[in-house]
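Example record

The entry below shows one chain as it appears in the dataset: sequence first, then structure tokens.
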Amino acid sequence: MPLTEYIQAVLSKATPILDKYWFFINSIRGEYNWLILACKKLVVRVFNRGDGLLWDLVKYVGL
């Protein structure tokens, strides 16, 4: 699915809060279960699968 279609699909499911859309994108060492627990509100969850702590840190630092 092209990125523009994906963004449109996500926005169609989002609920505007005070005319704004809220997104939560997890970062290093993010797990799907923690994402669900962190966002039990009207927030669009974007899951960014990690490769494990070591490789996530390597990508973050840019080695």
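Notes for this example: The chain has one domain: 3-61. Residues 24 and 45 are 5 Å apart (CA to CA).
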